[in-house]
Model the fold of this input.
Amino acid sequence: GSPKGKKAREYLAERQITSESIKHFGVGFAPDEWEGVTKHLKAKGYTDDEILQSGLGIRGKRGLFDRFRGRILFPIWDHRDRVVGFAGRILPGESDLAKYLNSPDSPIYHKGDVLYGLKQAREAIREQQEAVLVEGNLDVILSAQAGVANVVAASGTALTGLQLKRLSRLARRVVLAFDPDSAGLAALERVASLERPADLNLYVAPLPVGEDPADLALRDPEA
Done:
């Protein structure tokens, strides 16, 4: 119920993310405290080393403090449906911070092997034999809201051959729907040069200039 928590809810409402989607994707908020999570984990019996290894704590001069503070949190599940990491987005107006902060690689979280939204999209991908690959967490959530349920994102990293292999076990086609800007085009070129399973076909969905999948999903769900 903190003012920042209220601001986080307002931001999600502004982006037109429904309460159903918030629940479905487990979207949360990291309180703006230095030791909220680390104290909670210590009280549950976790050691400093375990908290550090999990990526939830950072060691400072005066001991451990929380990695995620005052950010909207998007949990990342692995292929076995366990939460293994988080992506944390700043609130609007906090331009002095990195926009997104991701969990670091850990014994249970390997960025290059995890796809954001796979837990929620798996059945749709299997049914349609097709996965749509977007760049960001909000692209996934808003696309799913617009009725494209078979959508996932690479998790805080460029797409890897390992992620394509994961998708090839579920589908025959992967449609790349990256942002239509220079970074998105560079990402497309990188994907084209990746080693990929022989029976996996790649397609590109050209988006209207200046609109990412999240924008398009809100403006014109049909499109």
Notes: The first helix runs from residue 3 to 14. The longest strand covers residues 71-77. The chain has a mean pLDDT of 93. The chain is about 35% helix and 20% strand.
